[in-house]
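Form 12-C: Joint structure prediction
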Amino acid sequence: MIPAAPSTAHPAPDPSDTGRGAIGETDGTGPAGRTDAAVRVGKRPSPFIVAAAVTVSVLGLLPLGYVIVTGILTGWPTLSALVFRPRVGELLLNTIGLVVITVPLTAVIGVAAAWLVGRTSLPGHRVFAVLLATPLAVPAFVNSYGWVSAVPSLNGLWSGVLIATLSYFPLVYLPCAAALRRLDPTVEEAAESLGSGAWGVFFRVVLPQLRLPILGGALLVGLHLLSEYGAFAMIRFDTFTTAIVEQYRSTFNGPAANALAGVLVLLCLFLLIGESGARGRSRYARLGSGVARVTPRRSLGAFTPAGYLFLGGLFALAIGVPFWSVIRWLAQGGAGVWSEPVLVQSLLQTVGYGLVGAVVTCLLAFPIAFLAVRYPSRLSRGLESVNYLTSSLPGIVTALALVTISIRFVQPLYQTAVLVIVTYLLMFLPRALVNLRAGLAQVPVGLEEAARSLGKHPFAAFLGVTTRFFAPSALAAGALVFLGIVTELTATLLLAPSGTRTLAIQFWSKVNDINYVGAAPYALLMIVLSLPVTYLLFARSRLTSVS
Amino acid sequence: MIFSRRWALLAAIGTVTLLGATGCSAPEESAPAASDGAAPSGSITVYNAQHEELTQAWADEFTAETGVTVTLRNGSDSELGNQLVQEGTASKADVFLTENSPAISLVDRAGLFAPVDDATLEQVPEQYRPSTGMWTGIAARSTVFAYNPSLISESELPASLLDLADPAWAGRWAASPSGADFQAIVSAFLELKGEEATRDWLAAMKENAVVYKGNSTVMKAINAGEIPGGVIYHYYWFGDQAGTGENSASTQMHYFKNQDPGAFVSVSGGGVLETSANPVAAQAFLAYITGKGGQEILKTGTSFEYPVSDSVDANPALVPLSELDAPVIDPSELNSTTVTDLMTEAGFI
Amino acid sequence: MTSAIELAGVNKSFGSTRILEDIALSVPEGSRTVVVGSSGSGKTTLLRLISGFELPDSGTITVLGRTVAGPGIAVAAHRRGIGFVAQDGALFPHLTVGQNIAFGLGPALRGGTRKQRARAVDELLEMVSLKADFAARRPDELSGGQQQRVALARALARQPRVMLLDEPFSALDAGLRAVTRDIVAETLERAGITTVLVTHDQAEAMSFAHQLAVLRDGNLCQVGPPREVYWRPVDLFTARFLGDAVVLPATISDGFAACALGRVAVAPTGLRGDACIMLRPEQIMVEHCETGGADAGTVASCTGQVEAVDFYGPEVQLAVRLFSGGAAASPSAADAGTLVHVRQHGTIGTIVGSRVSLTARGTATAFAARP
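Section 2 - Result
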């Protein structure tokens, strides 16, 4: 459900490291994050920081714990009756079909696009490099709305594959494009000198080195497919997540919804384990210092028109169609659709939640990132993994858990903005974590120590030296969380205080009434809010590839 | 120094939005009025499963008349009904409005409602409210079979909802079974024909029906010729006709009548929560909806639902309720839990 | 000896920057040629032109009698059959050592059985003096020198008759560098492979090369055997690039120069009149002279005073200020006070302020121009 977003590095070879929402920067070139220079040996972290990190992580275990506990409380007879029924079979078939078809498709398209813009002399490749990242700014459910507007008869598996592929291929494209730029060109030349032609070099040398970014991207695509609701509900394609939402609509948090959530969680774990297995123990470290040389671009020759057709077609289908639909509805609605007073309120509320959520998430992710970088240990790795796991769960599961837990045990929080922010925190923490960690790792401890030797208090030294270094990473972390929140639908629907009208909620309410004209301004506003963040992500992926 | 200025700006933006978000997200509950005679004031929260546009129109009008702020929490019948049951006494809701009666009966059975003011009940004829007086009907809607005349001739139309279980109808009719509307129709079926017949009919429906999400979508598909016909409520058709007609221009409506389950007239309900922090305003809101002002909005507005008050006629475009020959069902008898279980068992949800 | 590689009139520019200018080079078959130049001199580009990763703007390149680049001809790198070892080895990070080496095996072996391939890999590892169990390791588990040797083994797998090495030892530390260099040289020698190596390290260049080519700003200034280039550089730049040089003004007649160090034999002998001469520091012998008087018996001697002593362990470098108008005939007063750096065994107990007499041995190189 979260039109996810790429992020910068999360290099650990941990199975869960590409937590949902973090296009883990499985950059394929080994751990850039944890440098020895940044590690503090022989000292203990402040107990406050440890306590904060542990608290946030324990909070992160709530949703999974909820699924397990309700499963146990429901009891096996009821549970098995709810799980082993034809409907679940249907959903399983649909969901697995969707994943099995879409994931390889996005991988092929993402890699092909990355190669075309990164390695060929196709005129305009620079422009395409940016354009192909823009689908990330269009939430999948808005994309679906655009497609349903253009082709009303869309429904079922293949329509789901179409829309999901167009929405999610950048999750593979961006990390692959970044990794391609980082590959050592001399390695490819070595293959050439050993007699490999262009195709041979690509398949025997380039593609294998892209394994980690492809796997990381594919995992993200898979997790998005499992958690997306709106996009598939609109084309009448039932997956586990749409079915859980329907159960929720019929029973609030009844046992059937929880049973489905349990199966969905198993599917997520299956994906995580599968990715980790495929990744293996390998890490492809770049050997030696390499040469500061850009790999020469190849001319496509007679295939140039085909290259254009592919890139142009991809862009037209992924961005052109939804944009055209939005603009068509806007034109049809005229000035009237903009006069709704709720529009401004909705925009402010969305931006407010986005900013507060981003700041809170970054602040609370910091202790975990700090421990991971400065005091790497079994504990810090464990804390990190917990958070990646939680964010891999679909938002509907997290939301169901928090609704129930807050009603039963923490009623003062129930239906408050605080609970919504906590949910965002759990869902999007890894986005902040990977960026903060990468940023912290780039700051040599030596600088901080130098400041302390010049008479600064440790905290002042940290503020004065370290924060300035990692400010850009923190900004990227916040931006990613912001992007996630702006386009979040299901969890917000379930948890927000009465009267909350974020852009996504308003959009969805209009779409449900088949008021496509009225939904268009909200769609446009979501895209406009997301575009700068998407560009920031694109720019950062280029930046890290140079350094 | 550029850096510190940037930080200052960020901090400023953060502070402002924090204030903004907290300011606009948690509506303050006002103190309850001292006595029954007091004028309504403060604010109320309405758990609204009715069409958002309709309730919003009621709320706006009510606010204009009384100054009471109305906050809506929108959702579906069963969702909000079950939510209220889960929330129990901790609920922040003051009023619950539904599209159909099963969900409101659910909350009633959980004992969460305060009795509706007598004056309010007097505004609603007895057949549109339960005898307990714990809630009241606020509007009504009729089941119809919408069809595309280019795909189905008048002579082929089903005489009863039961006919749609016939294999001849395989792949030829649509519905939105995950919605509360259709589930209300099933609850009427259950009430009229019993559990066995309902289970069988749902099993046949699973074979025959094409499933869409939302009545509008069903109508849109019929209009587009994707499917010959479908079971929906009447007002979707009239609403679209009154607008652009783009989703209904090529469709017609067929009323089952004959007290068939398919002629079921569903009553939308409204009730005041026992735990309401502002019962005066909550009761006043319900009184307003069932009174002349609120019912007029049903007649003149774009909802095309039937008013339940004797004092207000239905929109003249509609077939009068009295001509629909609907089956007689006590709205408080409709059971949503069994229906949900049957629907789950049949594999619709 | 026929040439394995022949470059004629090769020019290469990147944009408006001229990288290589009118390069002509002939590499005899089975020999090792080292192209030495400072960074930015164009040496890597030269290598990339031969390997086929770049194409010349003009000129022709012939490898083993086949024109691989020239007017209308551009043979792709993978069709040239030239081995190439990059600066840091460029091993495939996703493959094991064995797989890296097998990557280059010819089609016959690639299609062969697993055993055949494994044996071929073992043989290649042995060729570069690595044990067979290295085959299972991953490249990042190897030291820099081992990586280089694997890269060489991988390139050798294709049994190329020509091998190009791009600064292959520069990433290694000093001790490893010499060992690796020797192993590589020996391996190539045994296989009879024509080799071109580029480096910026003069010592490495001279030790490795049969033929040395000095590249400066895109021009080849001198090509020849290392000794010849070292002792008889064609110009002062080359002289100073290959090692320390003592350059003195001199007047030349009949194959001898008269300079601050007295009379020194010079080459080439054709020069006459005012010129300057270049001596390597190791040609100058230092002796303590207590009296300050010159020993008339030596061929050329003079006296100076030690101004600085740099101790390097096995040897010391002395900065000697020559006396103005010393005992030896000084052709011009302007030479008086010249500072000369000489190297001596560390055992010499010279201290700052000592008076010494300097004697030139062997033949100096004369240049027409004054320094």
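Section 3 - Comments
Strands of chain A lie at 5-6, 22-23. Residues 1-37 of chain A have pLDDT under 50 and may be disordered.
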